[in-house]
Amino acid sequence: MLTQSGERISVETMCQPHFTQGNLSREKPAWRLPSWNGLLAVGHDLALRAGWAGQERTVTWTLSARPSAVRTARRLSAARLSAWQLAEPTTETAAVPAAETATGTAVQLVERLVADALAHGAEKIKLTLSAEDGLLRCEVDEQRASPAVVRPSRAACADLDRLACCWGAAGAAVWFELRLTPQH
Fold first, then answer.
1. C-alpha separations of 36 from 65, 72, 100, 128 in Å
2. Lowest CB count within 10 Å: 65, 76, 96, 108, which one?
3. What's the chain's Rg over C-alpha atoms?
């Protein structure tokens, strides 16, 4: 076979790999593309910092069903609740640990419900937060090709009973509400 420059190349030469096992780089790449969940979290953080988000009192995200969804849900919910100024302790709750504030409790429960959705085999996870009438409402909806009725795990039920003022499950969605302390 002839190349464009007229040189003769054998078929054996053409079929040889262009690299040998010895020259493969074992180093990690300098950067890698983040997952959808990572991009979603970065975009949300940028929007909050730029002032493009945070004013609306209801927000919904669709997370891909990957292990990073738990971390992303925690990050997104904490950032949004902070933008809604629910992360600031009031004078009555200044001595209360962060996990016992409405934000800490909400983030803990969101994390548990998203982990449950992953364990149930959801294809996508829809996370909705809303703050109205002195209540913070969170809904985690497991989206899948075949509809299924989902119940939270025993550990999630125990946490929901202990921390939420009310909660429930309908179809593939689990929701809870927390009372908010009024901000002065």
1. 10, 10, 31, 17
2. 96
3. 24
